[in-house]
Amino acid sequence: MTTATYTPDPGVEHPPGAPGGSARRWWVLIVIALAQLMVVLDATIVNIALPSAQRDLGFSDGSRQWVVTAYALAFGSLLLLGGRLADLFGRKAVFLAGVVGFAGASALAGAAQNFELLVVGRVLQGLFGALLAPAALALLNDTFTEAKERARAFGVFGAIGGAGGGVGLLLGGLLTEHLSWRWTLYVNLGFAVLALIGGVVLLTGGAPARRPRLDLPGALLASAGLFGLVYGFSNAERHDWSSPQTWGFLTAAVAVLGVFTWWQTRTPHPLLPLRVLADRNRGASFLMVAISSAGMFGVFLFLTYYLQSSLGFTPVRTGVAFLPMIGILMVVAQLSITVLVPRIGPKAVIPVGMGMAALGLAWLTALDLDSTYAANVLPPLLVLGAGLGLVMPPAMSLAISGIGSEDAGAGSAAINTMQQVGGAIGTALLNTLAAGAAGAYLADHRPTAANVAQAQLESYSTAYWWSAGLFAAGAVIAALMFRRGRPDATPEGTTVVHM
Question: Hey, what CATH class is 22-214+271-498 in?
Answer without folding.
Answer: mainly alpha
